[in-house]
Structure formats: structure tokens, C-alpha cells
Amino acid sequence: MNENKLVLKSINDLLGSKFYIPSYQRGYRWKNQQVEDLLKDLWEFKTNPPKQDDGKEKPFYCLQPVVIKPTENDNWEVIDGQQRLTTILIILNYFNQTEFKTPKQVFDIKFETRTDSKEFLDNINDEALASKNIDYFHINNAYKVISNWFDEKEKTNSAAKNEFYPVLVNDTKIIWYEVNDGSDTIDIFTRINMGKIPLTNAELIKALFLKNTNFKKVSPDKIRLKQLQIASEWDKIEYTLQENSFWYFISNNSRNFATRIEYIFDLMKGKKKEDEEYFTFYKFYEDFEKSKDTNENPDIDAIWLKIKKYFLTFEEWYKDRELYHLIGFLLTVNTDIIYLLEKSENKTKTEFKAFLIEEIKTKVQFQIEELDFYKSKAKARIKTILLLFNIQTIVLNENSNIRFPFDSYKTENWDIEHIRSQTDRKITGNARKDWSKDILEYFTGNKYVENKKVDLDVLEDEEKKLCTSLLKTITSDKIIDDDFDKLYSTIIEKFKEDKEPEKINSISNLALLDASTNRSYGNAVFPVKRKIIIENDMQGTFVPICTKNVFLKSYSKKLGEIMYWKNEDANDYLKAIKQTLSIYLPTQKVKDGKQ
């Protein structure tokens, strides 16, 4: 059985080739935007080409993969990528019809469902042919888009076409994936288009690793053994990376990798956000091609060992409880993981942990009492402090097996929320009904259900009177503003939140919460918030340990009234933050300005 082939080919390499589009594929359907995007990308590459490093191949623009299979008479059946190929051919034909007295060589495309497709592609301007079917209509439309695009370009650059053509033909390459293993083409097409064989950087790199030609001087049995070893280790790495607790420990990447090992490849090759999609594959491809120039086998073992070293280092960090938390924090606040990898080299574990502590100090160099929720940059700093407070609280409890859930933190959009509500913020609209339902549930112990009688007889007179007013608010078609304002004032006075403390927006009145809980209690009074937090914790919803401690009043030296959040509670909470983070924070000023 022949081996599948994976190479890079320039458009120039394709000239003279004959491609065949089978009937199981839909016809040409690229819209204006897709055609223009391709032209813009090529022009941008021409205008701002990547820097050419010494001794390196000239940079090129690379298109996405084209999956093809050889057929009789040196023709190629296109399994995937026909939209891109057809668009390239339309551009080439545009140049032949507008620029060259003697047409230059192109490649041919024939559609099984359109027997005269070659003739039409050679005469795209034929409006009569273009109106014959929907495929020709879209091809003709793409031609018009290309023509209009160059007309606009030539208004500011008369040499636009002359500059563009060599970039297209000589500096544009496709990833050529040639299927030679006897697989059924319809089955391959179906699997690709259902996402079962995603042609990601990772899958293409895997194909590079497993090529038989990498092992020229090795027996077939040993080749097969080495391929099985790499494939097996690859699967084990991917399996671990698919565990969200591991993945979100090492990655802040918002990109949804179909194959997560690709993240490691991106790190190895230094891929940046602005780099093109298949940047990482090109870099690995270059590594393998270098060995061909020296007539040597690629050092598969060395390349694969480097990949494993990245993974095994991450795994070691993950398994060590202290490293997990220190590194997890740094990565969450956007420290470069490659920077940490480099700093970990040639250091003992003790030395590396000491380095990490010093690195964390650089992230929290501010006076935490001066941070105000509504001041510029302060909110992000408060969030950093509260995150570190939760993490360090776990780290300091050496007998606990609890680990901070970076996966929850990064996927549930955690934010900071006031412990005691900002009662000066007016509640309006339907939010007043929601607020009233929360208070009613607090007094009665039951959720409000529409049209279900609420038993108020068990309540004391004061609470019964309040609940009657709350029910009136909930069931009214129109809420009278003055009535609600009086009810609101009465309730916040009952819960001793009528006098807002000076430091309501300071860190001593703020806690870390997941977005769903944050939304659920909005402007609720402290005891309602406390009830929601406790219920969430009982139901298995993760509540940050320090947030739970706050609402259980674990930091308060005097418990006193458990249902109120007083200035003394806030001060004790602030002291706990300072004490827990004392190893990281700079010397903190006290109220009178002394150290």
C-alpha cells in the first residue's frame, strides 16, 4: 500500500495540472467577501512580507490544505479544497484575459456535473454561459469581484497587477495532501467535512512524523514499531490535554483547539496571534525539509523528545501542588509560559519555587487599601489580589488536597462583587420584582411561585407586614415608585444597610464570584447574598474558599450579628487578606500614613 504524501507546492507547481471535481461535492459557492479576503491577504503579504532570516527560505503565503487523489492519465481528483483551487484559477484566467497578449499556462478544472466547465472557465465573461446554472453564476460573479478589486487598486497603484501576479504564482503555496493509501474518496470527503479528520496544524504535523520516508535506513518492522510508539504517546498526551483541569492550568488561550497538542506545537514554534493559520505546520515542515537537503533522515527521536519534554514539564508542574498554584496564578495573569519554561531550566525545584514567589511579587506591587472599585485600573488589580488571596489560602493549608479550579475560573467568567450592597444604587424596572422575591424567600424560607398562596401566618407581625408589601410589589402590574422606595428603605434599614460605609468600594467589601451567582443576587442585602452562597455551596456549585469564608464570617473576630456585614467585619477581612498575602505584598501603609 502506497503512503500518503504531504508537501508544500507553489501555484507555479500546479500549472499544467488537471483537476477533477467529483459529483459528491457541491459546486462553486464562494461569496464576494471570501474572494476579496483572499485578494486582500495576498496583497497584504506583498506589501508587508515577513522578514527573511539569514539562510532561510524566502517567505511565502500559504493557502489551506488541498486534499487530492491521483487518477488515471495524471489527473487529480479533488477531495477537499476545490473552492480555493477554483478561485485561484479564476484569478489566473482574469490575468490571461486582461494582461497577457499570449495567455500564460494555467491548470485545468473539470466538474463532473458540468461537462462544459473547462470551456466556461476559459471564457468566464460569457454571460450566456454564466446564466446556465448556479455554479457558473458564482464563478462569473467571483470574476467580477476580482475585476472590480483590481480596478480600485489601480486607482492608487497603476502597477498593482504587475506586482500581484508574481506573488500569486511564485510566493503562494498550498498544503498538498495526496491520498495514496487506497481509501475511498467519498468516505474521506465525508469525514473531513463532518470534522472527523480536521486538517489542523496538529494533524498535518502528525502526518509529517509518521511518514515512512523519515526512516530510510530502517527495516519495515522497526518503522512500524516507531510509528506505533509515536502514535501511542501522541494519544496519551492528547488524552491528558483534553482534561479541562490540566488544560486550563497551562492555557489562557480562548481558541478552541480541535487537537490540543497543537498548543504545544505553537509554543515550540513561537506562533503569535497575528501569524497565519498554518504557521506552525510550515515551521515543522521546514525542519523536516532541512534533513532532505543533507540526505539524512530527520532526527525524529530528537524532535519528538523535545515535544515530550514540554508536555512532561507541564505535567510535573501540574502534579506538584505548590507549583500548580504558583504557576497557575502567574499564567492566569498573563505571564508568558515560555518565559517560565526558560526560567525553570537548570534550577532545582526549590530554586524555581523561590523564583516564582519573586515573580508573583511583581504582579501585586500596590497598596491594597487605596484600590477603589470604580477607579481606573483598580478593578483589574482588585481581581488579581482576590484571585491570589484564594489561591494562597489553599496553598497555606498543606494538609488539604483541595486545588484551585483554574478551569472554572477561566470558563465561568468570574468577577468581583460587593459583599455589602451599594444601597445608593437605585433599583428600577423588573429588577424591583426580582429583588422583592429574594427578600420574600429570605423571610418565608420558600421560593415565590406565581399563583401559589404564600403562608405568612407563621411570621412575626413586623416581617408579616413587610412580606405583604413585597407580595404587592411582585404581583402588581404597575409598581408605584414612591411605595417601592419606602419599602426598600424600610428593608435596608432593618438589615442595617441604610448607612453606607465610606469604604464600600474598597477591597474590604469585595469578593470573587462566578458570573452566574453574581447575576443572581445583584443588589441583594447581605443575608440574602449569604443564603444564596451557602445554597450554591451545598448544591455543589464551586464557591471560592475566601468568598465562602466571608459570608460565613470566618474572618470576623467577633461573630455578633451573623446577618449583618459591619465595619468591624470588613476590617477583619482586610487584615486577613494582608496577612495571607504578606509574603507577596509590599509594605502596606496604615490609615495614618505610617508604615
Label this structure with key terms.
595 residues, six-stranded mixed β-sheet, 8 strands, GmrSD_N, DUF262 domain-containing protein
Characterization of this structure:
This protein is α/β, with parallel strands linked by helices and 595 residues long. It folds into four domains: 5-199, no CATH class; 214-361, no CATH class; 401-416 and 503-580, no CATH class; 431-494, no CATH class. Helices cover 53% and strands 8% of the residues. The protein has 26 helices and eight strands. The protein has helices spanning 11-14, 32-47, 82-98, 117-122, 127-130, 134-156, 160-170, 185-193, 201-209, 220-241, 244-250, 261-269, 279-293, 300-319, 321-332, 337-344, 349-361, 378-396, 406-411, 431-444, 461-475, 481-494, 515-521, 526-538, 545-551, 567-580; strands at residues 5-10, 18-21, 61-70, 75-80, 108-111, 172-178, 415-418, 510-513. The strands form two sheets. Strands 1-6-3-4-2-5 form a six-stranded mixed beta sheet, with helices on both faces. α3 crosses α6 and α12 (261-269) packs across α13. The chain is globular.
Offer a quick outline of the entry:
The chain has helices at residues 11-14, 32-47, 82-98, 117-122, 127-130, 134-156, 160-170, 185-193, 201-209, 220-241, 244-250, 261-269, 279-293, 300-319, 321-332, 337-344, 349-361, 378-396, 406-411, 431-444, 461-475, 481-494, 515-521, 526-538, 545-551, 567-580; strands at residues 5-10, 18-21, 61-70, 75-80, 108-111, 172-178, 415-418, 510-513. The protein is an alpha/beta fold and 595 residues long.
